[in-house]
Each structure stands twice: as structure tokens, then as C-alpha cells.
What does this fold into?
Amino acid sequence: MKDPIFVYFEPAGPPSRAVLLTIKELKLQIKLLPVDLFSEEQFHPEFLKVNPDHTLPTIDDNGYHLWESRAVNMYLADRYSINDTLYPADPQKRGLVNRLLFYDMEQIFGKIIPYLKSFFSEGSEPSDEAKKALEESFNSFDKYLEGKAYTTGAHMTIADLHIAASISSLEPLDYDLSHWGNIVAYMKRMKSLPYWNECNEPGLNMVKEKFKQAKENKDETESED
It folds into this structure.
């Protein structure tokens, strides 16, 4: 019997959650190994032997070590998918998926992280610049989704799993997406996946708790001034 794939992950991170979603979609046998970034477990010698870049998520597929979430999901879909819907073999269809993976990195995940940073580290509102950048990104993405069930058309791909994981990171803040009807419908569709809550809720609850702690620390500091 083939050994399970070892998955080193950080439950709160969108990249780790995107990989978990792909693993569930592919019905893979895995062993989850959570790594606590706040305790700096990513620098433990045992983990550095697997990934000297100490980044998450990382997989160990019977001695084959790979990290960077998009590369991991490309590999998993290529190796284990029973069809090519999740990551098409056709160069042009695959090109669309690849473009959207990079789009997420730059325009969705890449705009959400600066927006969240102030809440996470300081318990305060993000800058006007971060707010505007995220709104402009959502304006563009909402228009792009017009008439589409998923980002490349009728079928879900690994690009959707990444983008939806990124957008869901705003839920602990009760971010209002109602201005973007296509995004709302898209996220409702993605969240109907039978394994969505299992892959996302634990990490999002962690994020919510961290934001709460940051806010409490800020309030306590201000009350002492």
C-alpha cells in the first residue's frame, strides 16, 4: 500500500487551505502535520530537512518534497486527478488556469493580505490605500465573473480553489461583499462544496481569534496611555 502524502500546513493561511481543498477534491490519502508559525516550528531542524525555505504548505509525497501552494496543487492535479477538469491538459485551457493562479497571487490574495495586516498586527483599520486597492481588485474581478459559473467557465479548477480560499480570509472581519453580486454568487457556489467547511472553518476561526486578541491588546494599550 502506498504511504499517505504528508502535508505540512498552517490552518489559517489561504495557501494551505487551497491545498487542503484540492486534496479533498482529489480524495487523496494524506497525513496532516500542522506547523505553528507563531511558535516558529517552521524553523525546527526536522522541518528544514523537508523544506529549507521553511514555507507552508509543503508536501512529502513518498520522498518527493514540494512547496509553494500553486506548484503543489499543479503537481497534485497532474499526478492524481482522474480527469483533466481540475487542471486541464489542453495548453490553452491550462493557460487560462495558470493566468488566474497568478492573478490570485497579485490581485486577490495579493490585495487581501495588506488589507488584513493592520487588523492582524495592530488591531486597527487598514490604510485608505489598502482599502482602495482591494475594492478596485474586486470591481475588476466582479466584472470578469459576469456570465461565468467559475473563473474559467463551467468547470471548477485549482484556480477557483485558490481564489475562493483567499476571498474567504475576509470573513472573520465580516467584510461586506454585497457590492459585488457576481462575487457573492461565486463564493456561495464555492462554499457549497461538501468539504468546504472542513478545510476552511478551523483556520478562519483561528484568524478571528487572532484579530480579537490584537484588538483587545490595542484597546488595553490605549487605555493605559
